[in-house]
Write a structure and sequence with these properties.
- This protein is α/β, with parallel strands linked by helices.
- Helices cover about 45% and strands about 20% of the residues.
- The strands form three sheets. The chain has a seven-stranded mixed sheet, sandwiched between helices. Strands 10-11-12 form a three-stranded antiparallel sheet.
- Strand 10 (about 325-330) and strand 11 (about 330-340) form a beta hairpin.
- Helix 5 (about 135-140) runs parallel beside helix 8 and helix 9 packs across helix 10.
- It is globular and about 60 Å long.
- The termini are far apart.
- About 55% of the residues are buried.
């Protein structure tokens, strides 16, 4: 195996370790056994990931003493992250005879982690969950922090629960089997974390895009671990998103609207990158940050092959933001960069949010305004 990195998370409800080690996938059973215990393990995956890794993970679980783990595999994609799939998953877990002492293993990207995590949070009012992320986006973001959810017709992630995993096992070598497009998409969240809390990480991303060919395996593991540390520090302080944790939504209010408008054909990280660039330009326009801040963010996103703007109608962005779970009453809390490594949260009315969208989104419109 490669160099082992372990990030310890300690929230009010549960403490757990995140293992970031090249080659660790074959040791996942032992790590889950040590952290979660239980008599049985049940693996949830999707049609992209299961053919690659389900057999290896089940074999590792058997070596760790879990008898012949059963599994539930659903059609890959955001369209499956709905109540119907979640219900089928719950029924499969029940048929397998799991108890609340047993463990649900989420093997896959963010959709798998969200759906399997919510199933684990709901089954018998909560059983053990182990997150085994196989995409960069899931490794640096969704597998850590305990947010689990499914989508409703009204919007993304509107039904869910805070349910911390017992362990997270992230093997960077799994990234060798994802497409370059998916790896690029995931970089949106990595860049966001640099803007949010770590100028040194941002500088590293400026010097060398992490999705470039030949990027060092150990260096990538270090970047993943640093992203997890950034999220860990926020989640430890504010598990249930009452204050500080809202800063992790940097780029998400506009990004989620763009994602929904695309019918989820655009990736989450891609939309976060667009939202990040848009809100940074708006922040510079109203004097919250210096003009070089959005310029640097745009350059880093472009260097990673990510878009930096949207041609989506501004009224559509505002309308979809009204349905976002982050809205509060007649307004929305918007996270805005103040400098690279520092952000603030502003509570704005929907009219004020519309003005920010006008200032930050749509190159042609901005050029006419200026």
């Amino acid at each position: 195996m490669g160099s082992e990195r372990v990030v310890h998370v300690k929230t009010g409800s549960r403490a757990y370790d995140v293992h970031v080690t090249p080659g660790v996938l074959d040791e996942v059973g032992a790590l889950i056994r040590e952290a979660a215990g239980g008599s049985r393990a049940f693996v949830v995956s999707d049609t992209n990931v299961a053919p690659l890794y389900l057999g290896r993970v089940c074999a590792s679980l058997e070596r760790a003493g879990y008898p012949a783990p059963e599994s539930f595999v659903f059609q890959a994609g955001e369209a499956s992250k709905r109540a119907a799939t979640w219900g089928l998953c719950m029924e499969a877990i029940a048929r397998a005879g799991l108890t609340r002492d047993d463990v649900v293993v989420a093997l896959g990207g963010g959709v798998v982690g969200d759906l399997a995590g919510f199933a684990g949070a709901s089954y018998m009012r909560g059983c053990q969950v182990a997150q085994v992320p196989t995409s960069l986006l899931a490794m640096v973001d969704s597998s850590v922090g305990g947010k689990t959810a499914i989508d409703l017709e009204a919007g993304k992630n509107l039904a869910g629960a805070f349910w911390q995993p017992s362990v997270v096992v992230a093997d960077p070598r799994c990234l060798a089997t994802i497409s370059h497009e998916l790896l690029t998409d995931s970089c949106g969240e990595v860049i966001k974390h640099g803007v949010l809390a770590d100028p040194d990480l941002f500088d590293e991303l400026e010097r060398s895009p992490i999705n470039a060919a030949g990027y060092d395996e150990d260096a990538l593991a270090a970047v993943i671990a640093r992203n997890i540390e950034i999220k860990r520090d926020v989640v430890d302080a504010d598990e249930h998103e009452r204050g500080l944790r809202q800063t992790l939504n940097l780029g998400h209010t506009i990004g989620h609207a763009i994602e929904a408008a695309s019918g989820f054909s655009l990736g989450h990280g891609t939309c976060v990158a667009i939202g990040l660039c848009c809100i940074a330009r708006a922040a510079a326009a109203i004097g919250t940050c210096a003009p070089e801040v959005p310029a640097r963010i745009e350059r880093v996103c472009a260097a990673h092959g990510l878009p930096t703007d949207t041609d989506l109608d501004h009224a559509t962005i505002v309308r979809l933001a009204r349905s976002d779970k982050k809205r509060h009453g007649d307004g929305v809390n918007v996270v805005m960069p103040e400098a690279i490594g520092s952000v603030g949260v502003r509570r704005v009315s929907m009219d004020e949010f519309a003005r920010l969208v006008d200032l930050g989104c749509g190159g042609a419109a901005r050029g006419q305004e200026r």
